[in-house]
């Protein structure tokens, strides 16, 4: 099994868009509670889970003051979800609770770019400068951004506050001041996906978050998924406006433009299952674009990496080959992957802790059923 310290795989993933929430600390002040939902196409029931259940795995994970966690396992014709812990207001977690994605949102942005390529609105190997108005090196291609091979560093999180022109200016300043050397070296940077958001905006003439919602979330009926900066939606797990002011993830008094296309979406486990099934079935992009997405030409965090998608394996379970992504901040993390061979999606949302270890624990549980 992989070393649990491998959680560093996406530790810097969303410091721009979502950093510094305080919900996890308050969750330590309340007793852990657990909820399990089991469903099939015909019925939905809520029951207490026996020993060795998905619920017990989640409850054990949040022990020792780890806050809250939600997991979902979605297979053909059935789904199992479990939640444990509470938010900073003492409100118990439920399996359907929306959760901040961190860099898991990058899979949405990458898919939107591939949709635009299918429409003939852009070419992956063309210069990004062909599509955006702000200065950026002619050497950097759209593919370079998707693969994290642009050489552009991550925008420091302290430069990003409330959605607005200042946030966009900070992004553009980092891009303009960089002397990139695009090519074969893979260097993870949130800025790549912030620039892809600007590309979506300039190509479509729409707010990037609105366009992604209309082209991905709405067709797949991802009703609990939205961009916190520009769209209203279900309350996510942070409870108090005052705790998030100025921390990147915040309520600035009104909705603005979407700038955090690197990690500012809210979703839940069921919606992530809908997304991966839509993506991998060809409902969202063409067969050619899907092949491009799943062509693993580089390596990221020790795993093979395509266009916005990781291929994750574990020698303990050689038959499980997972496609997806995740994200992490100082206070919470996400991981959501789909196994096409087993037709299974596993999603893990947790405050602190090691989401990769929990992910594989849940997969082991699913394999033993």
Describe it.
This protein has 11 helices and 13 strands. By secondary structure, it is of the alpha+beta class. The strands form 2 sheets. It has a 10-stranded antiparallel sheet with strand order 2-1-4-3-13-12-11-10-9-8, sandwiched between helices. It has a 3-stranded antiparallel sheet with strand order 5-7-6. A hairpin with a 2-residue loop joins β8 and β9 (303-305). The protein is globular.
List keywords for this structure.
369 residues, alpha+beta, ten-stranded antiparallel sheet, three-stranded antiparallel sheet, 11 helices, globular, disordered N terminus
Strand content: 15-25%
Q: Outline the low-pLDDT stretches.
A: 1-50, 239-250
* Number of alpha- plus pi-helical segments: 11
Order of helices and strands: HEEHEEEHHHHHEHEHHEEEEEEH
Largest sheet: 10 strands, antiparallel
Main sheet: strand order: 2-1-4-3-13-12-11-10-9-8
Kindly state the mean pLDDT as a whole number?
A: 80
Helix content: 25-40%
- The assigned structural class equals alpha+beta
Count every beta strand, where a strand is a DSSP E run of 2 or more residues.
13
Overall geometry comes to globular
Using only CA atoms, what is the Rg? 19 Å
Measured distance between first and last alpha carbons: 20 Å
